[in-house]
Amino acid sequence: MVSMNVVLFISFLLFSVGVAGVLIRRNALVILMCVELMLNAANLNLVAFARHSGTVGGQAFALLVMGLAAAEVAIGLALVVALYRKKDTIQVDQIDLLKG
Amino acid sequence: MENLLAFIGRNMFLVFGLMAVGGAVALVFSKNAVHSVVGFLFSMLSVAACYLCMSAEFLAVAQLLVYAGGIVVLFLFVVMLVEMTKFKEKGLFQVQTPYAVAAVILGAVAFIGVFWSTWFGPSAAVPLTLSSPELAEGLNVASQNAEAVSRGLFAGYLLPFEILSVILLVALVGAVTLAKKERN
């Protein structure tokens, strides 16, 4: 029997590692992967609450989130490749075209 | 030793969850981008095992297919496309790292405070139970789990499902447009 608190705690840890990665890394690829981590933490919560309430809505929504994550990764990676073609870098702190 | 094994058997979710967190930490703190992708893969596989522990078998298989089979390969392709040695890596982390770490630690302390009160406070932790017996049966057995999820998806949430298909189409067209070479 999985305790609710354990699920919430693990998903909180995953989410905070993802936030930390987005905030502190420079590499755009790693930032995209950290966004995926945060989506997965949310998915864990959805499944746990679906099991807690005894309905399948949470699991169905986790499936939808998975599809959305796939679409987001496709767009994000296309942006990274386009950026690399234009600026020869994917370090987010070197992309400062709008910086005054 | 036997006690340890019994403890692990009872807390499979905790074990796999900590493995997922370990993979995530490896993702964030490794210098090489390929090592980051391997950490990401490890984390996603552990999350799939977590779904299995919560008897969401269909989701676990979908996680394996979508993440380990699709997204990780896509990330590896882009890592190979983008020459990491071409640009100077001035430093792994951003300038505002101390502020970011301070903010994350502050949030972690706040959340741990909340968990502390639910774990050691007066109210006992509620175990994960299913309210109706037929749903419990449908969620527990692997073949019936897929049936239950599909019924929920196609009966209860048909409109979000259809909207998702449109979003996937838009993402497909957008990715092709963004990534193709400019002709001039």
Summarize the structure.
The complex is a heterodimer of chains A (100) and B (184). Chain A is mainly α and 100 residues long.
Beta content of chain B: under 5%
Q: Kindly, what is the distance between the CA atoms of the first and last residues of chain B, rounded to a whole number of angstroms?
A: 70 Å
- Return residue spans of chain B where pLDDT drops below 50 for at least 5 consecutive residues: none
Supply the CATH superfamily name of the largest domain in chain B: NADH-ubiquinone/plastoquinone oxidoreductase chain 6, subunit NuoJ
The tally of strands of chain B reads 0
Strands of chain A, total number: 0
Strand content of chain A: under 5%
How confident is the prediction overall: mean pLDDT of chain B?
Answer: 81
Tell me which oligomeric state these chains represent: heterodimer
Please give the largest β-sheet of chain A.
none
| Class based on secondary structure composition and strand pairing of chain B | mainly alpha
What is the CATH topology assignment of chain A?
A: Helix Hairpins
> What would CATH call the class of chain A?
Mainly Alpha
Give the second-level CATH assignment, the architecture of chain A. Answer: Orthogonal Bundle
Q: List SSEs of chain A in N-to-C order.
A: HHH
